[in-house]
Amino acid sequence: MVEPYSQKEQIQQVVYRILDANLDRAREGLRIIEEWCRFGLNNAQLALECKRLRQEVAKWHTPELRAARDTPGDPGTELTHPQEEQRASIKSVLQANFCRIEEALRVLEEYSKLYHPTMAKACKQMRYQVYTLESSLMGHQRHQLLWRSRLYLVTSPSETLLNNVEAALKGGLTLLQYRDKTADDSLRLEQARKLRQLCHIYGALFIVNDRVDVALAVDADGVHLGQQDMPIAVARQLLGSQRLIGLSTTNKEEMQAAIAEGVDYIGVGPVYETPTKLGKVATGLEYVSYAAKNCSIPWFAIGGIDANNINDVIDAGAERVAVVRSLMQAEQPTLVTQYLLSQLNRIKPEL
Fold first, then answer.
1. Averaged pLDDT for residues 214-229
2. pTM of the entire structure?
3. Marked catalytic residue, from 25, 150, 277, 320
């Protein structure tokens, strides 16, 4: 006759089941991240770090813990949430699984104190390492998407702001900057949050103009600064190395200084006179041609660019452009976005 478990043994079995379930959860999440690092990013270093962490977790997954598994008797197998049944983008897949890993490691850290104190210390260290991995990977994702982005929409105040932006995102826009110089902070925060959510859904980058505090408050992908705004070094210290910093430039000296200061991209212009930059003399196409030959980071020609003159800007050497009025005031932003992208993506004839 098999003796029933004592109360202490019953608690021990529950702890073992918790550890087993969360070891599985952490390993599964790490494998999902690893596959994207390997096949999506072709980044051997990040993939190797995932594999190392996965093997470190597996080291603690002993036969003793596996033997406590009771899948048929686990009520959690039936629990689900609508957000788990669909993902809007690769970014949402990655973020969901990083959360899964980090939560699992926190559970392992606490419950393994009742099982193996050394395991608890190891799980704590791994959790911090996963935080670092998340920052590195999300930063890498941002930079990859920045390099791929051809069209950059800078918003202007509008009663149809969200509708215009979503229409552009439907047309293939992958980079958006929220710019409103006159709104009060409560409205600015509200609009920034809504725009960030839209960009998240469509897999686009979301940048905030000028305001590092707003960018941090809404978890934006970065900030765009002017020549008279916060110094780049201070912005970088506040934002960290993984978020993007852009800077407006009007001449080659400002361009070279921006590159030296470590910005991620620059605006080149204003190419044509524009009411969004009153008082600024247009740089013309000459600065565009200079940037095409000398700029080593992504750059966007900006200033009065629209469907009528975009090919002149492209012919001057621009591969990326930023626009305001041509999309914010368009009757059909989706179609205009598609047209602008079709011109930017066209194959240039061999010279």
1. 97
2. 0.79
3. 277
